[in-house]
Amino acid sequence: MKITIVTTGGTISKTFNEADGSLRNDRPVIEAIIGQLRVPDLEIKYRHVLSKDSLDLTEADRRLILEAVREEIDRADAVVIAHGTDTLSVTAELLHSAIPDPRVPIILTGAMRPYEFRDSDAGQNVTEALLACRLVPSGVYVAMHNRLLRLPGVVKDRATLTFVKR
Predict the structure, then answer these.
(1) pLDDT higher for 22 or 34?
(2) pTM above 0.85?
């Protein structure tokens, strides 16, 4: 199975800077996450589009993500997007409206805590997104915290720190 992973930054990719104690989107970490998984029959292509906190994404940034996904859905069996959780729903809704009948599953995921943190949910969420690629029909989805939610109407619930259907 061919999967393209599009990276955009977000909490999942934040790394700790020892010099000043900050968390930054300096580099994607998705390859390290997948490197810890046993996925022998996946052919994974990485497409690094942005390295931004999702609160800093502009409409132009979202168009870059959309164009990357449009290009990759013709080359892959599924597309996974690693995205910051604060505005993941905004990007997901854009993808759902701009690509109303995708040829393959488009799965967005992220993390509430950076991958480098011991109690991160990044590995779980990426694993769930990869499994979802095999199980769901084409469409746009959010995979996080043992939930797979199909667009439209998926939002971040700040009280429970996960995603829900509204």
Answers:
(1) 34
(2) yes
